[in-house]
Amino acid sequence: MSILNLGIVAHVDAGKTSLTERLLFDAGVIDRLGSVDSGSTQTDSLDQERRRGITIKTAVATFRLGELTVNLIDTPGHPDFIAEVERALRVLDGAILVVSAVEGMQAQTRILLRTLRRLHVPTLVFINKTDRTGADPDRVLRQIGHQAIPMWREHEAALAESDDEALQSYLDDRPIDIGRLTAQAKVFPAYKGSAITGEGIDELTRAIARHLPAAAEDAEAELRATVFKIDRDRTAHVRVFAGVLRARTRVNDDKVTAIDDGRREHIGPGEIGRVHGLRTVRIGDTLGTGSAHGAVFAPPTMEATVEPVDPGQRRALHGALQRLAEQDPLIDLRLDEERGELKVKLYGEVQREVIRDTLAEEYGLAVTFGATVTLHLERPAGRGRAGAVIGKDGNQHMATLELEIAPGEGLEVRLDVPFEHLPLYVYKTVANFQDSMLRYVRAALARGGRHGWDVDDARVTVTRCGYISPVSTAGDFRRLSAELVPRALARAGTVLCEPVHRFTLDGPVGALTATLGALPRFGAVPEPPDVGPARFTVQGTIPAVRLPELERALPGLTHGEGTVEAAFEGFRPRS
Ligand SMILES: Nc1nc2c(ncn2[C@@H]2O[C@H](COP(=O)(O)OP(=O)(O)OP(=O)(O)O)[C@@H](O)[C@H]2O)c(=O)[nH]1
Ligand SMILES: [Mg+2]
């Protein structure tokens, strides 16, 4: 009995939930086909999802294909909920990328495709909505590129180009191993059809069983598992990669009280399950061995103040937002002590509405959001050092430290001091001291920049350390770090950075000169355009805050025939 954890990913409205429903129906799991439009599907089960007709939270549904158990993970397509997709990608063995045959590749499809390629996720492409007029599966194939293999027509020659082994098989007239090429993410076998009419679904189902690699199952290995979702009642959804997670065992600092409401005794390798009793885990945590992954998608770039309509509910609101943040680590909550304001980081308007409705419906709290501001960040401009020795220069703490801040990638603490100078009677291990220092530094750098923003991409090196046993405490190191970090940072200086998008603009050739001439007005930096006989395409970067202006000006510049798509690229120094 093997297992396949299969994610369904796509741009909003491509048909992920409809396809999930169709696969469950065809497999006999449900005996009535639900629909998104009447709010009756298995995986869009939240009230808000049914009302809005979009997926907000990932949902898992299981069906059997012969000897294979498939856990389908339906994900949201709206960019405001990309964090949900990120978590799903951590736990899946393969993916189906759904693309509408009418709309073709869209901004989110491109981002997903790039990510699937980068993470080498074995992927099938399903070109959906072929029942609609204007459907053009071949155009979608061209948009995806040579990796997409059209399985509905002659494709051996295309497959043969994938690598040497495939070419050899082709030349020897032997069948090419599509499963191997798919597992290595060298090809994306493509199918077409319709989630609504059911056309093409048999072929897709067969491909799921034949071409996607099932989960590895090493039950003897040490436990390695990832938490990818947490419910409101603190139930943790866990994917086990290796080893076995058993009921009533201790993991990290918690005890598993039950699995799947007591209906299971353990979660084996390759399996997904709902675990009760893990009170302190957070989404993205690993259980057992293995380390956390870095983020694969863009962080939120906006922030808004949340106010309770009834000022007496401020404490209740703080509590509710903390609960929401536990279910969703990307609901990043901040208490602005000076102004007594609660702030949340946001991906966009839809996410803001969903948070508002969730607070009203689940917590009985009516709230209003203040103006949304664009988040900036600051990076160290150069190097800066600050230090203090116990009993000298007005050092009020029983700790000696010297810190150097320099530009880095992400936030990082290094130790450049002899081992015996570290207060290990307090911190037990070097790693623990280093982790604690990282926490102190992060706290000091939050909103610690010259312009009042978080400081990131900093490498902090501890160049001197000392203590007096048994007097020095962790508190001394924490408080001294809080004083030294700002001093070192003031010497290093900072560069103010703003979120920048990569845009792809397309328009009629007649509008090329006017468009290129106008782009710098919006702070955009265009690259050399690609000019065809009738249309041109130009890519480049633009500050996130200026994108709406470009979008408004575009119809005028291109006689209403231009389109622009954009996606977060990174933080760049503000010009
Ligand atoms: N004609 C036609 N319509 C489809 C097909 N698949 C989905 N739709 C419609 O497209 C709309 C979006 O479908 P969903 O299944 O909610 O799409 P989704 O990808 O899950 O959307 P999000 O979860 O919000 O990202 C609905 O109105 C569906 O009825 C199809 O094969 N043919
Ligand atoms: Mg959906």
TrEMBL record:
Keyword GTP-binding recorded: yes
Keyword line: GTP-binding, Nucleotide-binding, Protein biosynthesis
Keyword Endoplasmic reticulum set for record: no
Annotated signal peptide: none
InterPro entries linked: EFG_II, EFG_III/V, G_TR_CS, P-loop_NTPase, Ribosomal_Su5_D2-typ_SF, Ribsml_uS5_D2-typ_fold_subgr, Small_GTP-bd, T_Tr_GTP-bd_dom
SUPFAM superfamilies per the UniProt record, alphabetical: EF-G C-terminal domain-like, P-loop containing nucleoside triphosphate hydrolases, Ribosomal protein S5 domain 2-like, Translation proteins
Domain of life: Bacteria
Domain Tr-type G: 1-217
Protein name, UniProt field: GTP-binding protein
